[in-house]
Design goal:
Blueprint: H1 2-15, H2 17-24, H3 44-48, H4 62-65, E1 77-84, E2 90-99, E3 104-113, E4 117-120, E5 126-130, E6 133-145, E7 148-160, E8 164-176, E9 183-194, E10 196-198, E11 203-205, E12 209-217, E13 222-231, E14 237-247, E15 253-261, E16 273-281, E17 284-292, E18 298-307
Antiparallel strand pairs: 1-2, 1-18, 2-3, 3-6, 4-5, 6-7, 7-8, 8-9, 9-12, 10-11, 12-13, 13-14, 14-15, 15-16, 16-17, 17-18
Length: about 300
């Protein structure tokens, strides 16, 4: 009990930073941070639940969401996701986690490709084309103590427009409930602490983000989750998600998911609402999520996962 109280104290102390974040950063700060690939999430399961995954992360996606969740991994796992966006933009994510005698290590790669863009001279004459992209490589380590998980990640970030830029960043995360098959889970993470990206003369900061998450899991059936994000380049946003799973006699698991994120509340249509589905059998999983962005278009996320 005293360990749970210690965690909750840490949880509340970090939460006290929220008013200062809200006071310092708002929607007026939108567009002030670089490397948007750092915000695009990991895994179609999380996307189907509105990206409310800070407290749930217990597989290869913990490399992105919360390295403290790595302490709960019991088997080797890998996950690959392809995200079909709009206007020729695509996003890919790959991660692998290896449990050790003490803790677990993980590695991940994110890549955002903006497609081909026409290059113009000062008169408006087309002179060719270029293909901007952003890539992030991450290494993580998480260790557990009883029902607590603590983790950290180091990131190398590179970007290319017509010139290239690079920076380092770090994440830290904590999770309570790494051994729970059911019940309450809590998590917090501070993401993208680091330097700035400098393409020419101006250096732009990374999108620092503080996340608090909570989830409740009933064995094999229902999962509900909620996250609060406090980013340096936008207003506070809230994400909610739910998942219902059915396990058949032959150990096939089928899941349905739905979620909502207020991060895209200013877009029209169904932007912010997400739905998804997935299934797994003998350690092989396939998941899909539909993520609308209003008049901008729709996004489709597909991921394949392995546990062995």
């Amino acid at each position: 009990m005293y360990k749970a109280l210690a965690f909750l104290t840490l949880f509340c102390v970090c939460g006290l930073q929220a008013p200062y974040v809200r006071a310092a950063y708002s929607e007026d700060s939108a567009g002030t941070a670089s490397v948007q690939v750092l915000k695009l999430g990991a895994g179609a399961r999380a996307a189907g639940m509105g990206d409310a995954f800070t407290a749930l992360s217990d597989d290869a996606s913990a490399v992105y969401w919360n390295p403290g969740g790595l302490a709960g991994t019991k088997k080797q796992s890998a996950s690959l996701m392809h995200n079909i966006l709009f206007e020729g933009i695509s996003y890919d994510w790959l991660a692998y986690v290896l449990p050790l005698k003490t803790g677990a290590v993980g590695a991940g790669i994110q890549r955002l490709s903006y497609g081909s863009i026409a290059a113009m001279d000062e008169t408006g004459l087309e002179t060719g084309s270029f293909s901007p992209s952003e890539t992030v490589g991450t290494v993580s380590y998480g260790v557990g103590y009883e029902n607590f998980g603590f983790g950290a990640s180091l990131k190398y970030i590179s970007g290319k427009i017509e010139r290239s830029a690079a920076a380092f960043a770090a994440d830290i995360g904590v999770k309570y409930g790494v051994l729970n098959e059911e019940g309450l889970l809590l998590g917090l993470a501070l993401q993208n602490m680091g330097g700035k990206m400098k393409y020419v003369s101006q250096a732009d900061p990374l999108p620092l983000n503080f996340k608090i998450g909570a989830a409740y899991r009933t064995q094999y059936s229902w999962v509900i989750s909620a996250d609060a994000d406090m980013p340096s380049d936008n207003a506070l946003s809230v994400s909610l998600g739910g998942e219902y799973s059915v396990i058949t006699d032959d150990e096939l698991t089928v899941s349905g998911r739905a979620g909502y994120s207020s991060r895209t509340k200013d877009l029209d249509g169904l932007a912010g609402f997400t739905v998804g589905a997935g299934g797994s059998y003998e350690g092989i999983g396939l998941d899909y999520a539909f993520v609308p962005f209003g008049s901008l278009g729709n996004s489709h996320k597909i991921s394949v996962s392995l546990e062995f």
